[in-house]
Amino acid sequence: xxxxxxxxxxxxxxxxxxxxxxxxxAVVFTALKFASxxxxxxxxxxxxxxxxxFPEPAAAANDIVAYFDTHRLPVLICAFLQFGATVPLGIFxxxxxxxxxxxGAKAAGVHIAHETLAEMGSRTWHRAxxxx
Length: 132
Description:
Elements: H1 22-37, H2 61-70, H3 72-102, H4 108-131
Helix pairs in contact: 1-3, 3-4
């Protein structure tokens, strides 16, 4: 039996899972997620974003409402980019679930991860449609 020197090598006749490069998908997700923070946080200081920044959850309700009333465009840009980041996250999750099935994994965690992502996506879509 031949030992593989490189994990990307395959033995002739063996099956190989087809799918996107997970590193690239993860980089796209990370870039979109961090880009979503720029318009509403101190990460945007370099491009001219000034305080007040996105309010913390423990802030007074009046402060939170005032922020969202006066910073509508930055919040919409943030929400758009975060929603856009769910696409590569979905691709990443679906690819991982598919690879685990391909490799014969039977653990319940495979299905839980897939269902959790689907639920998060549908809730985000529902909130975006009903509140903006």
